[in-house]
Amino acid sequence: MEPTTITINGTPESTAAAPIQEPQRQQYYMEKARKQLSAFSTALGRPLTCCINTFGCQMNARDSEKLLGILESIGYQATDSEHADFVLYNTCTVRENANQRVYGRLGQLGAYKKKNPHMMIALCGCMMQEPEVVERIKTSYHFVDLIFGTHNIFKLAELVSTCLDTRQEKKHRTVIDIWKDTDKIVEDLPVERKYPFKSGVNVIFGCNNFCSYCIVPYVRGRERSRRPEEILKEVKRLAADGVVEIMLLGQNVNSYGKNLEEPMTFAQLLREVEKIDGIERIRFMTSHPKDLSDELIEVMSQSKKICRHLHLPLQSGSSRILKEMNRRYTKEQYLTLAEKIKAAVPGISLTTDIIVGFPGETEEDFLETMDVVRRVEFDSAFTFIYSKRTGTPAASMENQVPEDVVKERFDRLLNEVQSISAKICGRDVHTVQQVLVEEENDHTPGYMTGRLSNNTVVHFPGDPSMIGKLMDVYLEESKGFYYMARPV
Ligand code: SAH
Ligand code: SF4
Ligand code: F3S
């Protein structure tokens, strides 16, 4: 029987045997795919379109910008429509509901493809690093043309080209290329940014922390820091291109630089980034509390460019649960750290992530979380119901908390978080602050929307020529989670 899938390069080693190195090897495939697609477009008598749907975090969003850069460079034009000629889902698997959304929408994509048989459907991202997901797609979603993972996104042109070759044979096959892990970082590929004035910049890939509930280390591999020269080169290029705000990205940016040939701390990297002219605002995501150093707090307190915002995931306020979660800090250590940061950077906005219903969480443990929430007064908190992830240590722990108990705790936590945010978010009212103007206001014509250094949203009268500019506004009124302002 003819195989219905083609599995290529199951490990990174098999590409290492190739005669030319990346990214030159990909330049060759980009050229090849460009020719193939140009012939295809001529045959159809119209340009080819592509659409990328991103699920998940900033890391995925940045990956999607790279994937779009490659698709545009080989001849696709971006569209929002899922009726495009090439549709790519960049998936997330951090919680089960992220997976369910993908399966739900895939069914609909299959129906579109029936109407437009030359459409190509591709799946990538964290979900695809799970073998059982790939099996399910192979058996239940035959119409998918291409599946790849998180470690080889740089190969997209090559993979598209392979798919086009298999189409020539007039047989439908799913091309699958998943790597278990990689030590490779491929630089200098095309990128198509979503915003002209702000950009994410990867500094470290992967995660070594293995928090017991979390699937990310299994799907994103071990920590790999980019070389500082590459990061600084990219930031300089972005500045020259008109970018004024950057967000340095990593699952745990505070681990940056440990494995470099010449080790360097994240705080040292920040000092270097800060020297780059044209960059006015620097953000970073995410900081693990166990690794947040005094050196970093000092750099933040001295810097004119680092934004007054820190996302510091708490996960739980109970030291016992934190131990079970393998977070490696206690409630007291977290509280001390939060105090230290608030004292060093006045007016800083602290935001967090909290999981409710981790296995074995008692009412007492939950009350410890509520206590931290009240004491720290987070500007906002992302609250999540614990989701069992196959293969993680927490999935096989006993004492999974009943659903109704979790739901009740979740509602209580959300209420508390929201009432604290409403109370403290307006603290800068009646002052002049700088905003970065981001977009036109969706609801009120003649109004623009921007963000303060501490990430709070501000609406004010203006016009689209202001987009991408930093300007001063007077905060007239606090609306709880955002301000109404006027330019000064
Ligand atoms: N690297 C980041 C987090 C990435 S995942 C960090 O360490 O902070 C984003 C958030 O998803 C986590 O902070 C956590 O709160 C939540 N999360 C991760 N796994 C989860 C799970 N199994 N169930 C519910 N929430 C989870
Ligand atoms: Fe997941 Fe923990 Fe790594 Fe964050 S630090 S990605 S929560 S394992
Ligand atoms: Fe999701 Fe992967 Fe990010 S699992 S949260 S997209 S690293």
Automatic annotation (TrEMBL):
Subcellular location: Cytoplasm
Keywords for the protein's UniProt record, in alphabetical order: 4Fe-4S, Cytoplasm, Iron, Iron-sulfur, Metal-binding, S-adenosyl-L-methionine, Transferase, tRNA processing
Enzyme class: transferase
Family statement drawn from the similarity comment of this UniProt entry: Belongs to the methylthiotransferase family. MiaB subfamily.
Subunit structure: Monomer.
Record's function text: Catalyzes the methylthiolation of N6-(dimethylallyl)adenosine (i(6)A), leading to the formation of 2-methylthio-N6-(dimethylallyl)adenosine (ms(2)i(6)A) at position 37 in tRNAs that read codons beginning with uridine.
Protein name per the record: tRNA-2-methylthio-N(6)-dimethylallyladenosine synthase
